[in-house]
Amino acid sequence: MKALTRYCDHGEFGGYHYIDVSTPKCGPDDVIIRIKAAAICGADMKHWYADLKGSNTSERLDSIRGHEFAGVIVKVGENVTDWEVGQRVVSDNSGQACGRCPACERGDFMLCEHKSGLGLDNNWDVFGGSGGFSKYAKIPGGILRLHPHAIWEIPDDVKYEEAALLDPVSNSYKAIAQQSSLLPGQDVVVFGTGPLGLFAVQVARIMGAVNIVMVGLQDDVETRFPIASEVGATHCVNGSSEDVVTRCTEICGRDNLGLVVECSGANIALQQSLEMLRPNGEVVRVGMGFRPLEFSINNITEWNKSIIGHQAYDSTSWRECIRLIQSGAVKMQPMITHRLGLSQWREGFKAMADKSAVKCVFHYDEADKDVREYGEDNYADDSDLE
């Protein structure tokens, strides 16, 4: 089968290689999924930028990529009793966790310092898992014993492509619904027009925010601002041409803005977030940047403001977000701007890079040259991929 892989040695930041790999073998506790939809995440983009020309000369296969994926179970190990062939499922990206640390004790497996994510971390020869940018993915029995909700069953009326986006939906849900103190009737400002920001807009709408302000840049105006308005933003502010703090304060008023969700990772966005917040307000920092701060954060002490770090999700996030998608409260279809075969992976990554795409979803489109090892013909109906 074909797969989009990463090669690297000793932590080297490698690029992508689209190659033939062997189909995963199902151990006695494992589950094999035939991939129906796999989406590009912002975390995948760093490898696109790392090695566009394939100049990475490492010969070591690090991983099969793709950590936002859904599909149908085509084989289960002899010891598996909770899952069966034919079930439609989505992975929460968990591949390995220690089970002993404070995070694991709380069920926060994605915050385990020893975790490995399917399709995101090294997973080829460490714990035997594989990601979704291929025909099949293997969910290791080890993670299923520790974390039964490493995969979730998809309701019949939720499409594979919609389920594949549960990772960013659940991220945004946890950031606002589980980590912030947002109350209905307050206002929210969201920095960053990527999927996390746009889903944050939707969660804020569901939570009862009155004004929901999306802050982006000039290259967001054509595609992402209209989508932001469609999914719930009441205002869009162009940080390339407007005074962001002044404009957001005009829209919200100082007394109403108790929450900023910072999804861009830009230092200037964090600085502006603190400037516009009311006393006792909160910034949930979802985005990541890598430059030292060049401004004072005494503002958080002077006015009792909080910066809350955010990472990932837990089973509560997934349970509730599956219900929200099923109910239609979270709008999924406006977020899926590109649908491509996996063989067109370069086109998908280019669209993400130039911001013409919000979410690009792949399906496996290679000629079936590999052995029909798992009898997937019985479950290969792709009619719900539009």
Helix content: 25-40%
Question: How many helices?
Answer: 12
| Shape designation | globular
Mean pLDDT: 89
Instruction: State the order of secondary-structure elements, H for helix, E for strand.
Output: EEEHEEEEHEEHEHHEHEHEHEHEHEHEHE
Distance from first to last alpha carbon: 23 Å
- Share of residues in strands: 15-25%
Helix-and-strand structural type: alpha/beta
Low-confidence residue ranges: 369-373, 375-386
Major sheet: size, sense and barrel closure? 7 strands, mixed
Radius of gyration: 21 Å
Oligomer: single chain
Topology:
Blueprint (H helix, E strand, L loop, with lengths): L1 E6 L8 E5 L10 E9 L2 H9 L10 E4 L3 E9 L11 E4 L2 E3 L5 H4 L10 E2 L18 E4 L1 H6 L4 E3 L6 H4 L2 H13 L8 E5 L3 H12 L5 E5 L7 H8 L3 E4 L5 H9 L4 E6 L4 H10 L5 E4 L13 H4 L3 E4 L5 H13 L8 E6 L3 H9 L5 E5 L23
Parallel strand pairs: 11-12, 11-14, 12-13, 14-15, 15-16, 17-18
Antiparallel strand pairs: 1-2, 1-4, 3-5, 3-9, 3-18, 5-6, 6-10, 7-8
Helix pairs in contact: 5-6, 5-11, 8-9
